[in-house]
Amino acid sequence: MEINLRKLQEIQVVELIGDVDASTAPEVQQEILPLAQPNSKLLLDMSQVPYMSSAGLRVLLSLYRQATAQDGKLVLVGLSEDLQDTMSVTGFLDFFATGDTLEAGLAQLKETVA
Q1: Which of 2, 18, 33, 99 is most buried (most C-beta within 10 Å)?
Q2: For residue 43, what are the contacts with CB-CB under 8 A and spacing of at least 6?
Q3: Quick one: which H or E segment has residue 3?
């Protein structure tokens, strides 16, 4: 699992590379949960995540809850068809704003008023 962080203006971009499963989810959680600060804008680029287990979905839900509790915004981009299907069936997709591309996700976050 590789986690790349960068900042584009006020938006924190998190690029995940690799599977998010029981062995990598704790590392992902440790790296990205602290980013959910008051009024934060987070973009998770998941275009290079081929597989996500239920442990990975729990990490996403934790991040969503923490971000929204602090009036933050979170957008997921680059979800594979498999991930979209899994998240749709489990109801997780309803929680998240999503975009096909990094640019689309950035546009969504820039539209929101902090």
Answers
A1: 99
A2: 11, 12, 13, 14, 74, 75, 76, 77, 102, 105, 106, 109
A3: strand 2-8
pTM, 2 dp: 0.92
Cα gap 77→47, rounded to integer Å: 7
pLDDT in tens, 55-81: 999 999 999 999 999 999 999 999 999
Length of the chain in residues, anyone? 114
In eight-state DSSP terms, residue 21 is S
In this structure, which amino acid lies at residue 26? P
Domain boundaries, the chain: 2-101
Q: For domain 2-101, say whether CATH 3.40.50.1820 is its number.
A: no
pLDDT 10s digits, 92-102:
899 899 999 99
